[in-house]
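Fill-in record for Rhodocoxin reductase.
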Amino acid sequence: MSAHVVIVGNGIAGLTAGDTLRRLGYEGTITVVGEEPHATYSRPALSKVALAPGDDLDVGTLPAATHGATELLGRTVTGLDPANRVATLDDGTELTYDGLVIATGSHARRFTDSPREYTIRSLDDAARLKASLVNRPTVTVIGGGPLGMEVASGAVGLGCDVTLIHPGTPMELHLGPLLGGILTRAALEQGLNIIDSMVSSVREEGEGMAVTLTDGTVLTSDLVVTAAGDLPNTAWLESSGLLVDGRLIADERCRVTDSIVAAGDVVLIDRGEGPRRTPIWTAAIEQAKVAAAALIRGDDADPLDFQSYFWTDQWGLNLKMSGPIPQGTDPVVVKGSLEERSAVLHWPESGTAAALNMRMPIPRLHTLARTEPATP
Ligand SMILES: Cc1cc2nc3c(=O)[nH]c(=O)nc-3n(C[C@H](O)[C@H](O)[C@H](O)COP(=O)(O)OP(=O)(O)OC[C@H]3O[C@@H](n4cnc5c(N)ncnc54)[C@H](O)[C@@H]3O)c2cc1C
């Protein structure tokens, strides 16, 4: 068993990997290196409660770490030598390891280096954005996925005039046409201005920002929030020999090599259907559990078996969804009513269940999603 495990990244994947090592009986040393100076926090809360009216930047509390690791926070790993099992930190410190967990997450895509183009990935990003939004600037949000819609919802709630740019119906790619349509209608009712387009460029103009759409239209606003996807944090691995076409790929036990595992937003997992990223909170947790077990047990560890789970809070609506994105077919309304935007829904064909503004324990939602269609 490894005597020194180094975990790179102090997000939910890094935290879960450390806690899981201990739960499985690992008694050796653990060192966690985290670029952010903060203890692990809830990243999903950054675009939800953290942007709610009020002075607090409330991101809730996570259960305290149980890994008893030496934590090097506010420090960055800048290079990795897998042959000699050495990770190098930003100050030149070298950490030798027997086992390594790569959990460095991802960073937001952006168009410019302008401080008036905001992204929201870290607690510090959220604090900076909220401090600006409370002055009620005009805001352009680029991207109508969960992040863009949650930020838009928060900004409208803080009294800002907000325009969101997205090709097609916001949220549809993530939730399918029915649920995407419900959230989009709620957004329009609450005053969001939606433009169906792509962005070709963003630049500073005067005291504000100018966003050029693909048809040449130029929109100006005080600030821009870009919520147009994220890119894995793999720059520190560039000379490690671990990347394949610039990507970090792990097997179904989250192993990159015998002594290196990876979990969370940074990695693509190959479960036999080609390498895929699953950049969501519960995937990071499940992958980290499997990764930690694989460091200890190798081939005897269970492979990843993950049922997709996603949630969002926006426009006064809470949505939880288990299973793949439902397409086309009408759901069975198990409880409540779609008109009232309060319902439990089931798509038996795709194995999906959703609770819209309804309290429902996640295990029950998973069970409903897996329930076979009723035979006529
Ligand atoms: C605003 C926001 C809202 C979200 N909402 C939802 C949601 O509602 N539902 C959902 O399922 N998912 C949501 N997600 C996605 C979810 O938060 C991520 O999938 C999850 O946090 C990934 O965890 P992680 O540990 O892999 O990466 P991260 O949480 O990104 O943690 C990685 C950590 O590693 C650090 N790091 C990076 N490079 C280095 C280095 N070289 N050395 C040391 N440390 C390093 C980073 O600073 C970071 O602290 C949201 C994400 C964001 C940004």
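KEY FINDING: The helical segments are 12-23, 123-133, 146-157, 172-189, 281-297, 362-370.
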